[in-house]
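Lecture 7 notes: from sequence to structure.
We start with the chain below.
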Amino acid sequence: MKSQDTPFEGGPLDGRVLPVLLGPTGHPPKTYRIPVPDAAGGPPTVLVYRRVPRGHSRRLGVPTGWKYLFDPEGKRGGGLRWPWSRPERAGGTGAVAAPDGSPDGTQG
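Predicted structure tokens for the same chain:
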């Protein structure tokens, strides 16, 4: 498999350049998760980095490379977003309850 040296910005890996495996399209993954073991033996802490363009070409505006920025919240993001999907709400999954309070409008 091919790998590419990719810079990391922010967080504990700030300033480091690590080799990242490329996917079938030739790009590194959109999110990069790094589990860090706990010194006390507890569950590991997961550092999350998000892929952003390093720069853009002058003529076509195509990304010239990639870098990773630290995401301190580390929310599960990504996935496919279909145009017909409902927008995600702050408190839940985006599903809308019926006026009577039932999730699908049926009572009983």
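Points to note: The first strand starts at residue 3 and ends at 9. The CA atoms of residues 72 and 101 lie 35 Å apart.
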